[in-house]
Amino acid sequence: MYGMLFFCCSAGKSFVAEILMLRRVITTGKMAILVLPYVSICAEKAEHLEKLLEPLGKHVRSYYGNQGGGTLPKDTSVAVCTIEKANSLINRLLEEGRLSEMGIIVIDELHMVGDPRRGYLLELMLTKLRYAAGEGISKSSDGESSGGSSDRTDPAQGLQIVGMSATMPNVAAVADWLQ
Fold first, then answer.
1. How many helices (H) and strands (E) does the chain have?
2. d(CA 37, CA 104)
3. For residue 14, what pLDDT band results from cuts at 50, 70 and 90?
């Protein structure tokens, strides 16, 4: 399940995406990854989400700069990451067969896929997610290959990818690619 939010600047993209992410975390019990382009934004958003989720017993983890390691604890509800750290976490989840534990990934500033220095990491991460979700290669928590997993047959339980941008010039091409 893929979604893209394209509104003009200051129109509420982040607010809408945050609601989608929190709803997904709360209703499915699966984790979310929030991908932000800059460390300063990651720090601000992680603090905000901790205040919202702590009363619900949900855990927010930070993966940016020197924050966070290579592992993602199973009790994580939301991982707030830079592009580089998110790519590393996705690699780790795929290696460990834990991608099915993820319910949603939200990518802010999706237009950065065209960035000459960091865009390739975003494109690589999204390609891996699309392939893994489409091929059903994630494994269940007991290590068994899920093959035609229930996540694939029930879109409400599978991985949801939400991208946000106010300045993406090629919206239709990116939407086609994500489908």
1. 6, 6
2. 17
3. confident
Structure tokens at 5: 């939010």
What pTM was computed for the model?
A: 0.81
Close Cβ partners of 164 (under 8 Å, ≥ 6 residues apart):
4, 5, 6, 13, 14, 17, 106, 107, 108, 109, 110
pLDDT of residue 115: 82
Domain-by-domain residue ranges, the chain? 2-172
What pLDDT score was predicted for residue 116? 87
Report d(CA 22, CA 99) in Å as an integer. Answer: 18
Beta bridge pairs of residue 31: 102
Tell me what the mean pLDDT of segment 61-89 comes to: 91
Inter-residue contact 59 to 53 (CB < 8 Å): yes
Which residue in this structure is represented by tokens 């720090």?
Answer: 43
The architecture in CATH of the region 2-172 reads: 3-Layer(aba) Sandwich (3.40)
